[in-house]
Amino acid sequence: MGWLMVAFDLPVVEDEDRKKASRFRNDLLDMGFTMMQESIYIRNCISIEKYKLEMHRVKNLAPSKGNITAFYMTDKQWENSINIALYEPAPLGNRKYKAGQKNPAQLTFW
Fold first, then answer.
1. Residues 3, 40: contact at Cβ < 8 Å?
2. What pLDDT is stored for residue 101 in this prediction?
3. Is 66 in contact with 9 (CB distance < 8 Å)?
4. What confidence score (pLDDT) does residue 90 get?
5. How many C-beta atoms surround the C-beta of residue 24 within 10 A?
6. What is the pLDDT of residue 93?
7. Domain 2-107 is of which CATH architecture?
8. Which of these, 13, 16, 80, 97, could form a disulfide with 85 (CB 3.0-4.6 Å)?
């Protein structure tokens, strides 16, 4: 059991690039990824074979511009990660931090 994390920085200045970046994010969600941060998505993989399949799918969906990095970590490595602070989106882009808040329920599977 492990986790596949996809982090990306895609261009969004041109309309066409913005559409491709949005499509990539939506494709990740359709594949079962969960948004961890605005450009970091994560999903569980029950085996190395599943990881390889999902990584192949991500590569095929990737836009031709930008930077995409994928990480694989074991469940034990994921278990040892911590969130220093989580925020709740607020109006006009202001963010309110809540120190010590636990992982959101959708990221806690086991």
1. no
2. 47
3. yes
4. 53
5. 20
6. 45
7. 2-Layer Sandwich (3.30)
8. 97
The ranges assigned to domains in the chain are 2-107
Cα gap 53→45, rounded to integer Å: 10
Question: What residues have CB less than 8 Å from 80, skipping those under 6 apart?
Answer: none
Measured from the Cβ of residue 44, the count of other Cβ atoms closer than 10 Å reads 19
pTM above 0.90, yes or no: no
Q: How far is CA 59 from CA 17, 62, 99, 103, in A?
A: 17, 5, 35, 28
The count of other CB atoms within 10 Å of the CB of residue 42 is 19
Look-up: residue for tokens 């996809």?
Answer: 6
User: Running along the chain, 110 residues long, what does each successive block of 10 average in pLDDT?
Assistant: 94 94 96 93 92 95 94 89 68 48 51
